[in-house]
Specification:
Elements: E1 19-23, E2 58-59, E3 72-73, E4 76-78, E5 88-96, E6 98-100, E7 107-118, H1 133-141, H2 163-177, H3 188-196, H4 237-241, E8 264-270, H5 275-281, E9 288-292, H6 308-314, E10 317-321, E11 326-328, H7 333-341, E12 347-351, E13 361-365, E14 370-373, E15 377-379, E16 402-407, E17 417-428, E18 452-453, E19 462-463, E20 473-478, E21 482-485, E22 496-502, H8 508-511, E23 518-520, E24 523-527, E25 531-536, E26 563-565, E27 585-587, H9 595-603, E28 641-648, E29 652-657, E30 670-676
Length: 680
């Protein structure tokens, strides 16, 4: 079977800096390490990145969350609305080391996806190791960062495994190996499916020899780039290394209580000439098939075959699966059609999630994948990308890392969702055609490990630095888990922009390949009718273990605030009594908050929630009542702050800065917000 489009990746080995999410903060498999290097490169996924990269998960308060999950902070974004005009805009930023876009030295593309599940309530978060059905279900399916840097366990299947053996093995995986304190993105069911599914024999392996798995044949858990089958969380290596993948990425037989979605395609950035093919093959709209052996709970349900003929020979049913991003609790096609008529963003229809199922759902599919040209960046550099000057004559600098401004999803169920964002960065060479080279070229002299060439023609050779496992390579980063909240009534009909913070504690050398602090976006133009959600997150535990933590305040802590100033070239803000901008705003998330309340909350990162109490701001945390004094470098302020969703009563401009991190000649953390009558 030949794959339509190949993303060519790498086996586990020596790693260097490669791709890092900067906003939302990419984890690079970090959790809450107090060291410069991450503790476990295989905790949740295979990044292939430098151990020093990534950000710790957010802390809700001024101390490390330790083992208490409710003291973690997940970024909370408001969803888009059903109309295109009601977008919730998020700037996704990253750095990549090896170049892309109009860089003539390589082929490249970026794949951006997300996966979600129901957020539920505090009671739904896994809390306990009992073998009760609710506890088992929560441990297996609840999307989470976890509170341990260890990887969940797994038990390999044996050759010719009987149904009774299979049932006992997976029962132990479900009930014992999937731990309530460890993180979960993909499910153990998905990985067990991967460990049974045969590898795609049509893929190009060069001179890499993939050995049979414990099950007796080469499975999707081994690829040219990961020929040892190293496990990272419950990620399937073959699905990681190739896109679009030919198999459904559903995380379980049925969506279940948590409605765990497959991977949803958000954007593909590369050569625009491939866009028609990319859009046609995206799982967002194009269904996939899987070989199903049984629907019985105690029998293996997934076959090994990846072709219709092979599945038939295996005695299975070749079942068609559709992707979904949401499932609605409606009971008739008529009700479903009414919802569909009111949604201009998603595709909604009444049907089956799989063709062997009699149950029908009101299925919500995501919009068509965005397909565009990749940002241009140079090789051997984790930094800004090149952006052509805008056609509208705007002369303001466009100095950003690689970026795409996305619309956050709209979930018609109006349920809060837990999600994770995934960025994959593919680089490949033209020493072979990456889109049209298949297994019939394996073993040819065209490409092999470390070839020695007689360049001089005198029998003395020069060795080429070629590792066929790395000629064509995928790097990956993922966000920490974040929440997408349904909009409030006051947000209806409005476009919303998210204004956040990137970076972590340290100077440029110490934070690399992350960045020092800055606002994202640091230059934002909005209309008076738009909304802006100001929010940030940070950690209390990243102290680099004595490897350097330049900056102000307590070592190892992230702190941010927002103070109005008169000019971006200055470094002293206004006093609260001198500010002019806050009278132009009101809070939709705390409607009783006065301009002073809003300014005080943003100035203190929520240490004081306002001057006086409101329905949201508790009296004990208000500046008028709280007796504890705020530390002048914000050490006792929360590391993360939900902030406010602001609407605007008038036009104006606000230049702003962070008092702690804006240290002139060392680092700059400033920004500008323009509010205009229209988009110009």
């Amino acid at each position: 079977m030949k794959a339509g489009i190949l993303i060519l990746a790498v086996t586990v080995g020596i790693v260097v800096s490669d791709v890092y999410l900067q906003n939302p903060r990419g984890s690079n498999n970090r959790l809450n390490e107090n060291t410069a290097n991450r503790a476990n490169a295989n905790r949740l996924f295979d990044s292939q990145n430098n151990n020093k990269g990534g950000y710790n998960t957010g802390d809700r308060l001024d101390k490390d969350f330790a083992s208490e999950v409710r003291r973690q902070y997940a970024m909370q974004y408001y969803a888009s609305g059903p109309s295109i005009a009601e977008a919730s805009k998020l700037a996704v930023e990253w750095t990549n080391q090896h170049g892309c876009g109009d860089n003539e030295k390589l082929n490249c593309n970026f794949v951006i996806q997300y996966m979600c599940g129901r957020n539920g309530t505090d009671e739904d978060y896994p809390n306990g190791a009992t073998r009760s059905e609710p506890d088992i279900s929560e441990r297996r399916f609840y999307l989470r960062d976890g509170v341990s840097t260890a990887t969940n366990n797994y038990r390999n299947p044996a050759k010719n495994e009987a149904d009774t053996t299979y049932a006992a093995r997976v029962k132990n995986i479900w009930e014992v190996d999937v731990d309530d304190v460890k993180g979960v993105h993909e499910t153990a069911w998905w990985y067990d499916n991967c460990k049974h599914r045969e590898a795609n024999g049509g893929l190009f392996h060069a001179d890499q020899q993939l050995q049979p798995d414990t099950i007796g044949y080469v499975t999707a858990s081994k690829t040219r780039q990961n020929n040892g089958g190293q496990r990272s969380g419950y990620e399937c290596p073959e699905e990681r290394d190739y896109y679009p993948y030919w198999h459904p990425t559903n995380m379980f037989e049925t969506p279940g209580k948590f409605k765990r979605t497959p991977w949803i395609d958000l954007a593909w950035l590369g050569d625009p000439s491939r866009c028609e093919d990319i859009k046609a093959k995206s799982f967002n709209r194009k269904s996939r098939f899987r070989c199903v052996l049984s629907r019985c709970k105690n029998e293996r349900q997934y076959g090994k075959s990846i072709t219709h003929q092979g599945c038939r020979e295996e005695g299975g049913a070749w079942v068609e699966f559709v992707s979904f991003m949401d499932l609605l609790d409606v009971t008739s096609e008529e009700e479903c059609n009414k919802v569909a008529a009111a949604d201009a963003r998603n595709k909604i229809f009444w049907g089956n999630l799989r063709t062997d199922d009699v149950e029908k759902y009101c299925i919500v599919q995501a919009p068509e994948v965005i397909c565009d040209k990749a940002p241009t960046s140079r090789a051997n550099h984790n930094g800004n990308a090149y952006y052509a000057p805008p056609e509208d004559g705007d002369t303001s600098p466009n100095l950003n890392t690689s970026r795409i401004d996305i619309d956050l999803p709209f979930f018609p169920s109006q349920e809060a969702k837990r999600c994770v964002l995934r960025l994959r960065y593919n680089i490949s060479t033209t020493d072979y055609d990456p889109f049209n080279t298949f297994s019939d070229k394996d073993g040819e002299e065209t490409l092999k490990n470390g070839p020695q060439l007689d360049i001089l023609g005198n029998g003395q050779t020069l060795k080429m630095a070629i590792n066929t496992a790395q000629f064509g390579r995928v790097f990956q980063d993922r966000s920490h888990v974040y929440t997408v909240l349904p909009r409030t009534k006051a947000m209806e009909g409005k476009r919303l922009y998210n204004l956040n913070v990137r970076g972590k504690r340290g100077n440029a050398e110490q934070t690399y390949p992350a960045t020092e602090y800055d606002f994202v976006p640091d230059r934002l133009k909005v209309r008076k009718d738009d909304l802006v959600h100001i929010q940030w997150t940070g950690s209390n535990s990243h102290d680099n273990n004595n490897d350097g933590a330049a900056g102000q305040g307590a070592a190892g802590t992230d702190r941010n605030n927002m103070l109005q100033m008169s000019d971006l070239k200055k470094n002293i803000p206004y006093l609260l009594s001198e500010t002019t901008f806050w009278d132009k705003v009101q809070s939709l998330t705390d409607p009783e908050a006065t301009p002073n309340d809003i300014a005080i909350g943003l100035a203190t990162s929520g240490f004081f929630c306002g001057k006086t109490k409101t329905n949201v701001c508790q009296e004990k945390d208000s500046m008028d009542v709280k007796t504890t004094k705020i530390d002048d470098e914000l050490d006792n302020a929360p590391a993360s702050y939900f902030g406010h969703v602001l609407s605007f009563k008038d036009t104006g401009v606000m230049y702003y800065m962070c008092s702690r991190n804006n240290a002139f000649s060392n680092r700059s953390q400033k920004g500008a917000l323009w509010v205009t009558e229209d988009e110009d």
